[in-house]
Amino acid sequence: MRAANLFPPVGWLISTAVAGVTGLALQSGDSPPVADYAAALASDDQKAQVTLSLPIRADPERALAEFRERPLLAEGRRPILPAPPEAKEVIEPEIPPPTVVETPPARPALVMLGSIEKSDGRQVLLRDDTTGHEAWLGIGDAQAGWTVVAIQPESVTLQLQGAEITLHLFN
Asked: Which of 93, 121, 125, 157 is the most exposed place for a label (fewest CB within 10 A)?
């Protein structure tokens, strides 16, 4: 039989020794053992002599005032966040009233190529198929006589002389 099988592992021996030394150190301290607390709480005349480690507040207003004096989340404990940006007032452009025409205008040779949301509003990219000219337009801007009145992510509504037409993306 090997000698290693007769003795427990070294790690177990060390942890047991540390636990024993810690237990002795705690027993020799100034705090009374748990049995003394139980005995003191059992008798009515010794209840006043027992001091608990957590204070019990009979006056919640006083406890709240003390908490306000020393808050848990003080300014120095967290970084100061920047103030949120101020909301800007969005001014909608004025669209001129439509003029009434007897004959409806011909369908424009415009193609919607895309739209984008910018800080000053949504814009649309239109290409004139007759000239090949491309331009970014916002609400109230005009191309080939047609005025942009509404822009959606995949469509744009144009107006000319009271007639409205909606162009869809790549159609």
From this structure: 93
Is residue 4 included in any domain, yes or no? Answer: no
* Residue 96, pLDDT score: 82
Amino acid present at 150: A
Distance CA 162, CA 73 (A): 62
Measure the CA–CA gap between 43 and 52, rounded to whole angstroms: 16
Using DSSP's 3-state secondary structure scheme, residue 158 falls into strand
In this predicted model, what pLDDT tens digit does every residue of 76-103 receive, in sequence order? Answer: 555 556 778 888 887 888 888 877 656 6
Distance from C-alpha of 56 to C-alpha of 62, rounded to nearest angstrom: 12
- Pairing outcome for strands 155-160 and 146-152: antiparallel
Tell me if 161 sits within 8 A of 149, measured CB to CB: no
Range of the domain at 135: 110-168
The answer on pLDDT for 122 being more than 70 is yes
Domain boundary among 57, 76, 95: 76
